[in-house]
Amino acid sequence: MPPGLSHIFEQKRIIVCVGSGGVGKTTTAAAVALEGARRGKQALVLTIDPARRLASSLGLKELGHDVQRIPDPVLKAAGELAPGGRLCAMMLDQRRAFDEVVARHASDPEAVKRILANPIYGQIAGSLAGAQEYAALAKLEEFERDPEHQLIVVDTPPTSHALDFLDAPEKLTAAIDSPAIEWFRKLRGGEGSGWSVVGRTGAYVLKRLTKFVGTRFLDDLALFFTEFNDILGGFRQRAEATFSLLRRKDVGFVLVASPEQMAMREALSFHKRLVASGMPMTGFVVNRVHQGRPLHGHLDATAALAAYPPVRELGLQVGTLRIAAEALLGAHFDFEVLAAADHRAVEVLRQAAGEGGTVVEVPMFDEDVHDLSRLATVGRYLFG
Questions:
Q1: pTM score > 0.85 for this model?
Q2: How many helices (H) and strands (E) does the chain have?
Q3: Are 219 and 73 in the same domain?
Q4: Is 367 exposed, middle or buried (0-12, 13-18, 19+ CB in 10 A)?
Q5: Is there a single domain that holds both residue 208 and residue 135?
Q6: CA end-to-end span of the chain
Q7: Which segment of 199-208, 223-232, 272-281 scores lowest on mean pLDDT?
Q8: What are phi and psi of 282, to 5 degrees?
Q9: Is the pLDDT at 307 greater than 50, yes or no?
Q10: Are strands 281-289 and 251-257 parallel, antiparallel or unpaired?
Q11: Which distant-in-sequence residues (6+ apart) come within 8 Å of 153 by Cβ?
Q12: Is there a domain that residue 358 lies in?
């Protein structure tokens, strides 16, 4: 197998970067898409990152819901492009993406207008469990149908638990199709019928609810769920289609982690879930790894420090040099402890990956990755 993740460009069209929040998924996704463009692919990176780091790392002032092409002169800051290579990017607008799904599955255009204008919909589209992840999956499926995109890289949402991305469609449909919402639909009895069919129990409950939220809110709620029921079948169908898409051979999951204990536990848990679900695992990427720098042989740190030209020009006393040398050696020892701990953590992932599995280490950099040249540096570690 070629070094690093180079094999993905011959085998995969869709790369899904998954992992817990704060482990470098956005940077990894951008670096993968950039490398694809440099190798002649028409690459697109889709991010759902509210911190907007992707825009700055790609040399853009801002990034929105519309696909934006990175100018070739800007890309050349990362190296030469192979013929045909280009890079596009977009940042998901959750509300707009959700609106697009509603419009696609509703049978009545007028109902679409009423749903989008309903204040209850505004709350659901922005805060319902799984809505952001579901919108991302829907957008991915839309891009997949466009042959113009030869490589699609998805930066999944930053979540408290990485498994939220796979659970999103089920969570969303379960929330919309809950017994409480079904109760409101039955009480409403269809558009225009008002609350005349509520019965004695329903009337008592509605009377208590009206006291706190008002009749207008209840009308909006019931009308929304009555009309939204028309598109629920489309939501379920899309969820099933997306899961089938994610299991295809030209899709690859890159599991991004960091050496910290919590991130490692999450990565191993997600890996088990991916394997159990039949998702095509491509490899692990471990970011911010401390690289060991062992000292070989006898070292007179005081003499070495005194011989260093910038220090020698200061004309420091031997005692001062000895104190500085001891501090530097102590710092080096601490760094080696961190490197050893990171090495043990990475080895655990190598065991999980198994023989022939891919585990790529990206070292801890002195500065954050915020431009194309540094993204290209990350790519050198990812792809060998």
A1: no
A2: 17, 8
A3: yes
A4: exposed
A5: yes
A6: 12
A7: 199-208
A8: -100, -40
A9: yes
A10: parallel
A11: 14, 15, 17, 29, 30, 32, 33, 36, 43, 44, 45, 46
A12: no
Query: What would the two tokens of residue 23 be?
Result: 């482990």
**Model confidence at 1, in pLDDT bands (50, 70, 90)?**
very low
Place of tokens 């204008």: 117
DSSP 86: E
Give the gyration radius of the chain's Cα atoms. 27
Residue of higher predicted confidence among 38 and 316: 38
User: Tokens 């950039």 appear where?
Assistant: 34
Sign of CA dihedral 67, 166, 185, 199: negative
Structural tokens at position 93: 């607008």
3 occurs within a structural domain: no
Q: What are 17's strand-pairing partners?
A: 155, 254
Q: Please state, rounded to an integer, the average pLDDT across all residues of the chain.
A: 80
Number of domains in the chain: 2
- φ and ψ of 249, to 5 deg: -70, -25
Range of the domain at 109: 9-290+364-383
Task: Report the range of poorest mean pLDDT among 99-113, 220-234, 267-281.
Answer: 220-234
Question: What is the domain-level CATH number for residue 34?
Answer: 3.40.50.300
One domain for residues 199 and 323? no
Considering the domain architecture, whether residues 255 and 316 belong to the same structural domain is answered as no
pLDDT attached to residue 118:
79
Checking if the pLDDT of 239 tops 90, the result is: no
Sign of the torsion formed by the C-alpha atoms of 52, 54, 161 and 243: positive
pLDDT tens digits, one per residue of 141-161:
889 999 999 999 998 876 555
| 77 SS3 class | helix
Given this model, what pLDDT does residue 158 score?
A: 64
Whether pLDDT at 47 is above 80? yes
Sign of CA dihedral 213, 217, 219, 225: negative
C-beta separation of 35 from 7 below 8 A: no
- Do residues 132 and 249 both lie within one domain? yes
